[in-house]
Amino acid sequence: MISVVRNPRVPLYVAALVALLASAVPLPHWLDLLRPDFLLLVVIWFAILVPRAGGLAFAWMAGLALDAFRGEILGQNALAFVAVAYLAHRFHLRVRMFPITHQSLVVFMLLFIYQLLLFSIDGFSGHPLTDWARWLPVLTGALIWPVLDGVLGRFAAPG
Amino acid sequence: MPVLREPGARYAPPRGSALGLRALVLIAVSVGLMVVDHRQHELTVIRGALSAAAYPLQVLVQSPFAAWQWLSASLATRNALLRDNAALKDENRENDLKLLRLEAIEQENLRLRALLNAEPRDVVERRLASVLRVDLDPLRQRVLIDRGSRDGVTRGQAVVDSHGIFGQTSNVGPMASEVILLSDPTHAVPVQIERNGLRTIAVGTGDPHKLALPYLPRNADVKVDDRLVSSGLGGVFPAGYPVGRVAEIKRDPSQPLATVSAETAASLDRDREVLLLWFHPRVALPAAEPPPPPAPVPDKPRGRSR
Questions:
Q1: Mind telling me how many Å the CA of B32 is from chain A's nearest CA?
Q2: Taking CB atoms and an 8 Å limit, are B61 and A24 in contact across chains?
Q3: Cross-chain Cβ contact A72/B30 below 8 Å
Q4: What's A9-156's CATH class?
Q5: Helix, strand, or coil here: B221?
Q6: Mapping DSSP to helix (H, G, I), strand (E, B) and coil, where does residue A17 land?
Q7: What share of chain B is helix, strand, coil (3-state, %, to 5)?
Q8: Where are the beta strands (DSSP E) in B76-226?
Q9: How many angstroms away from the CA of A10 is the closest CA of chain B?
Q10: Of A109 and B302, the one with more pLDDT
Q11: Alpha-carbon dihedral B178, B183, B188, B193, rounded to 10 degrees
């Protein structure tokens, strides 16, 4: 081989793995409540900025991995991840052009939709969680988006 | 093939035309998965495989903490170790004394139960498990322990700590299982008030120190500081293990039920080591084995005496 072909999926998998681990690192309870949904943020980032690598199948697998990791009903995060990734994918050309603060707003909406989906699935499966704290990660996720964008942009930008 | 993707295209909107369809298919698959998993519990094999795959990652997550613990243990000073050792020896001596008394009482209890024709207490086997330092969901009361089906753990098995009942296993993987704590809002334990044997149900509240007893009538004989023990009904928890202590009672004359809350006996948010229990009643349940007809019993002595 003369030139090493850069596979755009390698950074994708590395980022997803790190995000999955970050979603379970033990933290003090108050910080745990604020913990953003790192894996979903990674999925959204790839859906918007490297849509050819981070497709819907990737979103689905990431969601399923999170389900398995947390021991929740298999498929609930998978479903919500696919729905959010679909929206991100659908509007990625537009969202890419937004300034970073507007992007944060879009991410806020996406994360809100994600929590809303999980909330309704919880309701169907019979253990609803009505604590207001479940909506905190939506806010923290949107706030951390510029940081994540900077880190991932440096590390996994399509080249 | 309806897929519109040319191999040489420089930029095709990625999977654009089939995006909605793909999303729908994946969502349908997820819904199917959820229904099968939630309603039928038929995905044990897949679940086991997935949780086996997740286990190394979960160990990886807690490895810095384990390493830190190991490091601080191996760097502990000699004095600290000696001090600990002395304290433990004292404790051990005291426990030995207590145990002596306990054994005598247990023997006595067995004899008395035999006299009363009462059912003997359950046989209990136990095994130590440690709680993995992995955060699952901050709003649900679940923890992960490092024992799974390889160690004989099954779904719905009782978990206790040194102070009382801790929870029960909910999802069992090959190497790790998830424990739903006593305090989870979806969890309930059949309990008994130790003082008078009044039976009721203790439900989790989401707060790791608090349980609710929502099914006690307003005039029920319950007092603050009453100890709650497991009643053994329901078959998940063996009878007689401490569950908590009644902390607060509110009797509203306009309500038929009293509002009673209790403190948990086990330290649900602090424990690192827990015990898994395997128990089975010493005698078969009457439903499983009908008692032999009494008729032939008087025959035998008669035959022998003649």
A1: 8
A2: yes
A3: no
A4: mainly alpha
A5: coil
A6: helix
A7: 35, 25, 40
A8: 123-132, 142-145, 158-160, 165-172, 177-181, 188-193, 199-204, 210-213
A9: 18
A10: A109
A11: 130
Residues of chain B in contact with residue A56, where contact means CB-CB under 8 angstroms, are: 15, 19, 22-23, 26
Residue B161 neighbours by CB distance under 10 Å: 19
d(CA B167, CA B245): 16
**Pairing relationship of beta strands B227-230 and B242-250 according to DSSP bridges:** antiparallel
Count of other CB atoms within 10 angstroms of residue B217: 13
pLDDT: which is higher, A9 or A142: A142
ipTM of the complex: 0.82
Q: Say if the Cβ atoms of B57 and A75 lie within 8 Å.
A: no
For chain A, the domains span 9-156
For residue B46, what are the CA distances in angstroms to A5, A142, B131?
Answer: 35, 34, 24
Q: At B106, which amino acid appears?
A: E
- Give chain A positions within 8 Å (CB) of B62: 26
Place of tokens 């923890």: B143
Task: Using a pLDDT cut of 90, give the percent of chain B over it.
Answer: 20
Task: Report the C-alpha gap between B279 and B120 in whole angstroms.
Answer: 13
Chain B residue at shortest CA distance from A22: B61
Taking the model in full, what pTM does it have?
0.75
Distance of CA B44 to the CA centre of its chain: 19
